[in-house]
Amino acid sequence: MARSLPPEALRRTVDPHLLPLRSTEELPPLTGLIGQPRAVAALEFGLDIPDQGFNIYVAGPPGVGRMTGVQMFLEARAKAQPTPPDWCYVYNFQDPSRPRALRLPPGKGRELRRDMQRLVEGIRREIPRVFESDEYNARREAILKEVNQQREEILQRLNQRARAQEMMVEVTPMGIAVIPLLGGRPITDQQFAALPPAMQELLRRRREAFEEEVKQAIKEIRQLERTAQERLRQLNREVALFVVEGLMDDLFEKYRDLPEVLAYLQAVRDDMVENADQFRGREEGQALPFPLPLPAFADLALRKYTVNVLVDNAEQQGAPVIIEWNPTFPNVFGRLEKESLLGVLHTDFTLIRAGALHRANGGYLVLPVEGVLLNPFVWEGLKRALRQRAIEIEEPGERMGLITTRTLDPEPIPLNAKVILIGSPLLYHLLYLYDEEFSELFKVKADFDIEMPWDENGMRDYIALIGTLCRKEGLCHLDARAVARVIEYGGRLAEDQTRLSTRFAEIADLVREATFWARKAGSSIVTAEHVRQALEAKIYRSNLIEERIRQLIAEGTLLIDVEGAKVGQVNGLSVLDLGDYRFGRPNRITATIALGREGVIDIEREARLGGPIHTKGVLILSGYLASKYAQDKPLTLSARLVFEQSYSGVEGDSASCAELCALLSALADVPIRQGIAITGSINQKGELQAIGGVNEKIEGFYYTCKVKGLTGEQGVIIPEANVRNLMLREEVVEAVREGKFHIWAARTVDEAIEILTGVPAGERGPDGKYPEGTINARVDQRLREMAETLQRFGREERPERKEAEARKNEEGSSKGESDRPLQRLPSADPTRRGFPSDLPAEDQQERLSP
């Protein structure tokens, strides 16, 4: 039997006197995730296992605290882990286009950068001073003097040999010229031209013979100059090495335990010694390669000795937890910045910038999967980094082959980080199905539940969550009564008297709004009244459409009866979801019955306004009718069901019980009480199944009855399975307590129809018949009468039909077989053309015959 629910069953309440607090200020802060034991176990497993590919996908709907909860969980875990190393990029003296990556202990990166800055400053100060010293100048002059002396000796010997052959040599900017002598004096071009040809030829041969000796002398001079230059370079190297090693001795000692840094320092030392001139400055009037100010040119030339600290973990305590809210390609993998130099874009290793993967290296990187998939190249780049366990910095255009200009190719940095993607379950399933690499790289799924048990532990966690939120955001703390109201609101969100919602974003918003009303009232603590104000204000901001619908019902524009009784008419309940607000509203459902074989026709489906689930509910309804009433007779009827004044789509099967009751009322010719609404889904056995939005549906009908006048006879029938989901507003519970409104729980259609009509449903007896006067007996009798009437009508009509068909056949045979019209077979769709198998055998043969 259906039962009337007492007020205590309509809402679970929390006794504030049983809560272990006077206000949330007394409680310790929250630690770890609450209400997510499955997700916590998955996170712990994924973070503990070191093998490759065990990255984590956190799945759950928005608002359940996925990002905040994961961040708190990771930060608590990361504190106990070692701090990862620093990473720096330095100049590669062997291949400048491929900067080297250096790994240093935490905090050493900035020290190395500072040490290199001091080294450059010291060398820029000491090198000019040493090269301007008297000792250096004396040694340099000695080398030059010796070279000049040897050069003069070579020229003197050459000149002596030339005079012996009546010639002389002259040193010019173009080289050494050989000039013939005539009478001991150099001959001019005019004098040479005036000589006899024989003399000219003699002088020419003599000069050509001597030019071989000149060439040999020039070779000796050049070799001498090269030797001098080498000696000067060697001198400069010795002087520079003396200065550089003196300044770098402390660095070699400081970084002796870091082989990579030592190798870099040795390369720096060698380059500084080899290119000591770059520290000596330029003399006044000396041309520059391009018109840059001298300080800028010097800084650009010496930039190769800079250390680019890519990741600085000097201030980091434990492993890093990085959340990248905007996962673009540069933000995740780093970038090569560029600067304008004389109108041309220029880059070098000092302009390499870190991405989220670099900062999270050695720790955890959290990414929203929607952003990863929407930003170009990020998903493919992330998979490649996880496969190769290395971070490569490149231009995004290179991935498409659009950049062909020369750029940098920084050395990849080894990747050792756990990547946590946060997204919806739908995206997880899509990636799993359509991306073969996804299951290999993200082997751990952490599902966030939308509910948690409503027990002592659950309430304690809720209280701790509220207290932590108040401390973190500086909100007013809540007293025990206010906490009790917030917990009850959590049960309302979960739509369950045994569960609390984990949509902590909405819980936090309620606490924030309650704090607003408390401060507006001048209170330093949030009370239950402030929570009530926050809830009512939130509803008022969003329920404009709900109030307009109630107004239309009150005015009679939308036809809803809440008094009296009518045949074939019932009040069904639906839920309208506006995104930020849901509310219930009644819908008038009507059924009409007539003779025919079409069966049950869903007008919503015929008008293409009914969704597939709603259509399924109507088909199940038809199956129930056939199973219960068509065992000893054919089910021959034409019934039409419709949602009156419905101008949009109808979806869901929660009205199938209401539709069936309207149909039974029409068949039995028994009126239904209009003050009672019903919701519930049915199966083919006539059992009521649970539906969603039960609280909104009940409240929607209650407020409809309220605007049209409560009579004390009104109420709602719900499935028994939905009793645990009741978390009705206090006003509705109070109306039930005062007897102004009623809520019944039913298990079957028979129980529901008894409440709606006040007539017993009746059970089939051993003789296969229902008790006289019951709903089922009246329906069964009506269906039998309709079948017999339709059968008699068919017999009376059949002779005339046979004669007409015979005449048509004769006419068709005279026209030819090809002109015979095609005969349409009866449809197998029971909602459109009836059930051919339910027709009498003779009638089936008649319809199927040509």
What average pLDDT do the residues reach? 85
State the total count of DSSP E strands.
Answer: 33
The shape is: elongated
Proportion of residues in extended strands: 15-25%
Which features does this protein show?
29 helices; 15% strand; eight-stranded mixed β-sheet; five-stranded parallel β-sheet; 48% helix; alpha/beta
Explained architecture:
By secondary structure, the protein is an alpha/beta fold. 48% of the residues lie in helices and 15% in strands. The protein has an eight-stranded mixed β-sheet with strand order 1-33-32-29-24-25-27-26, sandwiched between helices. A five-stranded parallel β-sheet has the order 9-14-17-2-18. A hairpin with a 2-residue loop joins strand 5 and strand 6. It is elongated, with a radius of gyration of 48 Å. It starts with a strand and ends with a helix. Residues 283-297 and 814-850 have low confidence and may be disordered.
Quick structural gist:
With 850 residues, the protein is an alpha/beta fold. It is 48% helix and 15% strand. Helix 3 crosses helix 6 (197-254), helix 6 (197-254) packs antiparallel against helix 7 (259-274) and helix 20 crosses helix 24.
Give me the secondary-structure topology.
Blueprint: E1 3-4, H1 37-48, E2 56-59, H2 66-78, E3 86-90, E4 100-104, H3 108-131, H4 134-164, E5 167-172, E6 175-182, E7 185-186, H5 189-194, H6 197-254, H7 259-274, H8 294-301, E8 308-311, E9 321-323, H9 329-333, E10 335-336, E11 339-341, E12 344-346, E13 352-353, H10 356-360, E14 364-368, H11 369-374, H12 378-388, E15 390-391, H13 396-400, E16 413-414, E17 418-423, H14 425-434, H15 438-441, E18 444-447, E19 451-453, H16 456-473, E20 477-478, H17 480-494, E21 499-501, H18 504-520, E22 525-526, H19 528-542, H20 544-555, E23 565-566, E24 569-577, E25 582-594, E26 599-602, H21 603-606, H22 612-629, E27 638-643, H23 656-668, E28 672-673, E29 676-678, E30 681-682, E31 688-689, H24 694-708, E32 715-719, H25 730-737, E33 742-746, H26 749-757, H27 775-815, H28 830-833, H29 841-848
Parallel strand pairs: 2-17, 2-18, 9-14, 14-17, 20-22, 24-29, 26-27, 29-32, 32-33
Antiparallel strand pairs: 1-33, 3-4, 3-8, 5-6, 6-7, 10-13, 11-12, 15-16, 19-21, 23-28, 24-25, 25-27, 30-31
